[in-house]
Amino acid sequence: MIFTSKRFFAIGALCLSCLAQAASAQDVTAELPPEVRSLLQKEMLQIDAAMKVIHGSIVRGEHEVVEKQGKAIHDSFILQQSITPEGRKALKNAVPEGFLQLDQGFHALAAQLSDSGGREDTAAQLKIFGQLTQACVTCHSRYVSERFDGLDAQ
Ligand code: HEC
């Protein structure tokens, strides 16, 4: 017999680890109802656009724009706006606790950035902008690793 039980076991163990890898590469949002997922994607595009405007405003010393756009990111926080209560529930159920925590941290940073705009504090804006960018990369690399497969887990 070529396939001794030991070999079977080894092959089984190998397959399990393949499955685990395939599962971890799947985006956390892949199983969401399509309308919830599409709202989340829209929010992300808005955040992306706001980050670009903020970057330009920091380097030009346009503090009031930093304040306004930081607040816009804060307010467009995916779990608070536009998503219906049912959609929010689906999202909360679909994503792991770590995702929600990252989202909350991200939310708080956007508020801090807005405040630093209000204080006309360029040094703080630079620091917080970097932290926000780190938060994008952390969440994408952990939870959107299929779409954004160029990011190593951070
Ligand atoms: C807490 C997690 C989390 C954080 C923080 C986060 N994102 Fe995302 N982002 C996602 C998820 C999940 C998707 C994938 C949505 C999908 O395709 O289902 C995504 C997708 C995107 C997309 C693609 C949108 C599309 O469908 O075309 C952009 C752009 C984006 N994010 C920008 C950003 C930027 C910029 C930041 C930081 C300022 C950021 N994200 C922070 C979770 C996050």
From TrEMBL:
Origin superkingdom: Bacteria
Signal sequence segment: 1-25
A Gene Ontology BP annotation from the UniProt entry: electron transport chain
InterPro entries membership: Cyt_c/b562
Alphabetized GO MF terms: electron transfer activity; heme binding; iron ion binding
Keywords noted in UniProt: Signal
Protein name according to UniProt: Cytochrome c
Lineage of origin: Bacteria, Pseudomonadati, Pseudomonadota, Gammaproteobacteria, Cellvibrionales
